[in-house]
Amino acid sequence: GSISLLGRCSLVLLVQDEEGKGRDDDASAVRVTTIYDKFVRPSKKVTDYRTPWSGITKDDLKGLGSLPCVPFEVCRNEVSALLASYQGKAVLLV
Fold first, then answer.
1. Residue 5, Cβ neighbours under 10 Å: how many?
2. Residues 7/61, Cβ–Cβ less than 8 Å
3. pTM for the complete prediction?
């Protein structure tokens, strides 16, 4: 059997610009900001990185890629803290 494991965690923040308030048809009124983007080091041996679909390589999960690589527990704690509040404001998940 096989187990699927998380290989990357990304969180984005959608912010409506002040000038775009009230204009539902204007997509430019929404700004997208990445607030978390890291590879997650697996706790078990990886046998198939599924690189053609995931874009993740062995080097990425060794911490040699373009993003930091952290253990799952670190990722979970960092994401939990971000979801509790971001820049002092409560986070609403939709």
1. 13
2. yes
3. 0.74
